[in-house]
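Exercise 7. Given the components listed, write out the predicted structure of the assembled complex. Treat all entries as one system.
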Amino acid sequence: MSIHLDNIVEEGGFKSCAHDFQTNCGNCRLNAICLPLALESEDVEQLDDIIQRSKPIQKNQHLYREEDDFKSVYAVRSGTLKAYKTTDDGREQVTGFYFPGEILGMDGIANNTHASSAKALETAAICEIPFESLEKLSTLMPNLQRHFFQLMSREITEDQQLITLLSKNSADERIASLMLSISARNARRKLSATAFRLPMSRVDIGNYLGLTVETVSRVFSRMQKMDLLSVDNKEIEILDIQGLREMANLGG
Amino acid sequence: MSIHLDNIVEEGGFKSCAHDFQTNCGNCRLNAICLPLALESEDVEQLDDIIQRSKPIQKNQHLYREEDDFKSVYAVRSGTLKAYKTTDDGREQVTGFYFPGEILGMDGIANNTHASSAKALETAAICEIPFESLEKLSTLMPNLQRHFFQLMSREITEDQQLITLLSKNSADERIASLMLSISARNARRKLSATAFRLPMSRVDIGNYLGLTVETVSRVFSRMQKMDLLSVDNKEIEILDIQGLREMANLGG
DNA sequence: CGTGCGCTTGATAATGGTCAAGACGCGTGG
DNA sequence: CCACGCGTCTTGACCATTATCAAGCGCACG
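Answer.
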């Protein structure tokens, strides 16, 4: 019933298309998210020079795998990815979902080896940022250096949020929080904060929030019964965002 | 029954004492942990110049508080600290324990505001590293820049480990993992891997691992009954490290 | 048109939380 | 030095939440 408008909606309406290799950081409409720094235009050009835009990766394809050599970090231009680790007994821990404008792969810097795998949840266009070049450029551009310190710090604070969520909150609260997070990230990209299509499966949500599929499904049913949202498979509509906030127990 | 030998054991036996303000990075016996980088001696001197060594902080004193302005990151010279966030409903999520040689405070970079509080679990000596100076120095010393990217990346991978632990592992597994982690960090500082004093309370352990005090206590009792370790209040002796590894379910 | 995967729903079980009581240990003050 | 009191830890009984097991539905894809 739903048509994939993602690519068009995401970038097509502005100056560039997500799959257009000519896109550069200067005209990318995501740069407010991806590069919220006071880079002079000449700086942006220099950054542009080191960024590689490759052909889109398909659903279920890997961007990198755990234990691959670390070479680059990646910015999402369109589509969504999940990062995940596989535990010794074969279960999957999703460590993050990455939407357009967001950057992933920074966990690989510590040991020059990716600490997690990254897989496309739908067709995705990616900017590859070779880390060695980025390091060199960072010594020349203090703004860029600061920006990457901040990006990594943000990843830390977000992981800490998730730690708190997992350790202190009920299934209802975890899922309400995730819905609000996705809603906010949509809003940041000027998309609807109340109606969207989940790019990930129920299993992925469970593996992110430390819950089983059954529990995820039951919570969605419950939320629907409470008229907090309407759920049609992956299509979500938030009907009562205030009620959802109360369920998430995050205050506000 | 146990005498606090920490300061003596920690640094006194080598060239410097933890509470000696004359200590510098070059002669600090923790520098293999704190600065595992190929810094030339002149580089170390430059780094030394920006580092501030203040008087020890006492048990229960704060190094910084959530929402304080972010100015510095900190290296632990002796003692132990916990970093924690307070949830909206007043509960405490411990996000990490920091032992000598480890660095904390990096979560404050993202928003120029500390995202967590840090409190001493026992008297602690700290090196303060003003972040602005560190940034400036990093543009001049690519090794130092890389080192800090790596430190932050390590913080990310450690948070992801904790996320996995919280979301996939039982109470037994969580506590066994923590004991093994403390054991390994002791070994790295040339202390006993099998006998140590826990610097944190049962409540702190619970708030770190997402468990109640009662559960923490029960798990310790169970482990003792299984002859995996002997517990005398905060004194821990690991009796069967292999058995503990099996309980932790981390393979090996 | 069938097969399979993803999702939902129900019944049951287990893990850990909650509440309560008591022990132990430590620091303070008499 | 001992007594008191509080905070921390332990243990038990009971309960709630979520996992597990099982079955069935429906859409997508071959």
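Discussion: Chain B has nine helices and eleven strands. Residues 170-171, 211-212, 214-215, 218, 233 of chain B lie near DNA strand C (CB under 10 Å from a C1').
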